[in-house]
């Protein structure tokens, strides 16, 4: 069974649709059961879309830094949760 910290590692590949069918299915099953990871994936997806929307324009350093901070924060929260369960 996929753990929260496993999901955090492959989350960006999942969002980009780069996971193999079986792996993608495990992520979906985990997301059905785990509200925290749904929130995490939702935030990550929103951040990814923001970055894509901005990629054609001049990169906004401040925005990228804020996105990076939020993703790192969410990732750390997931990792610490995953290790004590
Ligand atoms: Zn989870």
Uncertain residue ranges: none
Largest sheet: none
* Ligands, ions, cofactors: zinc ion
Rounded mean pLDDT is 86
Name the features.
mainly alpha; binds zinc ion; 81% helix; 0% strand; 4 helices
Topology, pairings included?
Layout (H helix, E strand, L loop, with lengths): L3 H12 L5 H13 L1 H21 L5 H23 L2
Bound molecules: zinc ion.
Protein name: Zf-HC2 domain-containing protein
Describe this protein's structure:
InterPro entries: Anti_sigma_zinc_sf, Znf_put. This is Zf-HC2 domain-containing protein. Residues 4-38 form the Putative zinc-finger domain. It comes from Marinobacter metalliresistant. The protein is mostly helical and 85 residues long. Helix content is 81%, strand content 0%. It has helices at 4-15, 21-33, 35-55, 61-83. α1 (4-15) packs parallel to α3 (35-55), α2 packs across α3 and α3 (35-55) packs antiparallel against α4. The longest helix has 23 residues, at 61-83. The model has no long low-confidence stretch (mean pLDDT 86). The protein binds zinc ion. The site of zinc ion (ZN) has 6 residues, from α1 and α3.
The gist of it:
InterPro entries: Anti_sigma_zinc_sf, Znf_put. This protein is mainly alpha-helical.
């Amino acid at each position: 069974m996929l753990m929260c910290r496993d999901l955090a590692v492959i989350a960006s590949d999942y969002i980009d649709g780069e996971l193999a069918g079986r792996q993608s299915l495990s992520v979906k099953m985990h997301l059905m059961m785990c509200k925290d990871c749904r929130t995490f994936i939702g935030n990550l997806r929103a951040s990814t879309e923001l970055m894509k929307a901005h990629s054609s324009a001049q990169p906004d350093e401040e925005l990228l830094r804020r996105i990076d901070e939020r993703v790192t924060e969410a990732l750390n929260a997931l990792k610490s949760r995953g290790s004590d369960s």
